[in-house]
Amino acid sequence: MRARVFVTLKPSVFDPQGRTIAEALHALGYAGVEEVRQGKYFELDLATTEAAQARALAADVADRLLANPVIESYRIEVAD
Question: What 3-state DSSP class applies to 35?
Fold first, then answer.
């Protein structure tokens, strides 16, 4: 089973890379882009067929390694 983990900075944390991207987009003429928040994306192929078990394993991995809980949050999607 595959789990997708999306890690982003918490809303209260300043995102300098996102701001730089937004400014570059404005310079390219994309005035309609108001804000950019950057993040990380991970795909985990897990040796289970149970969605609940896959979600729990992916959450454990994200808590212990993929995300910094002080400044980042994450969400998990599980697919067959």
Answer: coil
Q: What is the pTM of this model?
A: 0.88
Q: What percentage of the chain exceeds 70 in pLDDT?
A: 100
Name the pLDDT band for 70 (thresholds 50, 70, 90).
very high
Sequence-ordered list of residues with C-beta below 8 angstroms from that of 4, at least 6 positions apart, any chain: 41, 42, 43, 44, 76, 77, 78, 79
Number of helices (H), then strands (E), belonging to the chain: the values are 2, 3
Q: Which domains does the chain have, with CATH numbers?
A: 2-79 (3.30.1280.10)
DSSP 63: I
What is the side-by-side order of every strand in the sheet holding 39-45?
A: 39-45, 2-9, 72-79
